[in-house]
Specification:
Layout: H1 4-22, E1 26-30, H2 35-46, E2 50-55, H3 62-78, E3 82-86, H4 90-99, H5 106-131, E4 133-135, H6 141-147, H7 168-177, H8 182-186, H9 200-204, H10 208-217, H11 227-242, H12 244-247, H13 257-260
Parallel strand pairs: 1-2, 1-4, 2-3
Helix pairs in contact: 2-3, 2-7, 10-11
Length: about 260
């Protein structure tokens, strides 16, 4: 990133101006122990407005919980406008699982993983309504507009997305600019939705660095690419196509006017 200070000021100003126009009273952010939520919560704190950081563990790995707590402690020491709460959703998730059919299949596994994300979205919007706060998204450009690597109406259900025009490498640059905990910067990216601690690369089949490159070379001729580039480009195009429904507005059936009047 060429000008991290300028990028930082631009995003902070944009976020603050949006809150001004909305007439809301602050921000609520889900903090997971990952770099995206760490950066987003820091940007919100930089506005000087009220920021509520929510930890919402659902059988979370100890390393993720530890990183999340350390980051929130750091934020609260540095910014007096930051508060936090931990809402343990283990029992809520268990209750949901016990209410639905017991199906053993990969599709059921994925459905339950996405359900974790949607329970967190519900929790964020509970506090949004309670406190008149804006729900802030933590997705980056590769996830949100490259491969659609998020849960529809889960972590994709937000009011604003301050870092969604930043590539993952930009997120790392800004995290270093803000001196965010090195443990978070060095941790393998994970969505934290599985019981086996799989990381994002395990799920996607490519690293964020490779995916960024694929986004840039998507229109190059195949003979100019290495075998690995071709493989990653195929992953990128497949995910971009299959998850396109997440990135586009909800389709609306338009009724011919002469049918109605």
């Amino acid at each position: 990133m060429k000008y991290p200070e300028k990028v930082s000021k631009h995003i902070v100003s944009w976020t603050d101006n949006y809150l001004n126009r909305s007439k809301m009273k602050g921000f609520v952010v889900g903090v997971s122990g990952g770099i995206d939520s760490a950066l987003t919560s820091t940007i919100c704190a930089e506005t000087g407005r009220n920021v509520l950081c929510l930890e919402m563990p659902i059988y979370q790995g100890e390393d993720q919980v530890s990183r999340s707590k350390k980051h929130i402690e750091w934020l609260k020491k540095k910014y007096s406008n930051v508060s936090s709460m931990t809402i343990n959703l283990d029992k809520t998730f268990d209750s949901f699982v016990n209410s639905i059919p017991n199906v053993k299949s990969p599709e059921n596994e994925l459905s339950l993983a996405n359900s974790r994300s949607r329970l967190r979205m519900v929790t964020l919007y509970y506090f949004s309504a309670l406190k008149k706060y804006i729900v802030v998204g933590t997705g980056n450009k590769v996830e949100d507009f490259g491969i659609g690597f998020y849960t529809k109406y889960g972590d994709g259900g937000v009011d604003i997305s301050p870092i969604a025009d930043l590539l993952k490498s930009d997120v790392y640059s800004l995290a270093k600019f803000y001196n965010i905990n090195n443990e978070i910067i060095e941790a393998l990216p994970t969505d934290g939705l599985w019981n086996d601690n799989r990381n994002d690369e395990d799920q996607i089949g490519a690293s964020y660095e490779e995916l960024e490159k694929a986004m840039q070379i998507a229109n190059k001729l195949e003979y100019q690419l290495s075998e690995r580039d071709k493989e990653v480009l195929k992953i990128y195009k497949t995910l971009n196509s299959s998850n396109r429904h997440k990135m586009l507005p909800i389709p609306v059936c338009k009724i011919p006017k002469d049918y109605l009047r």
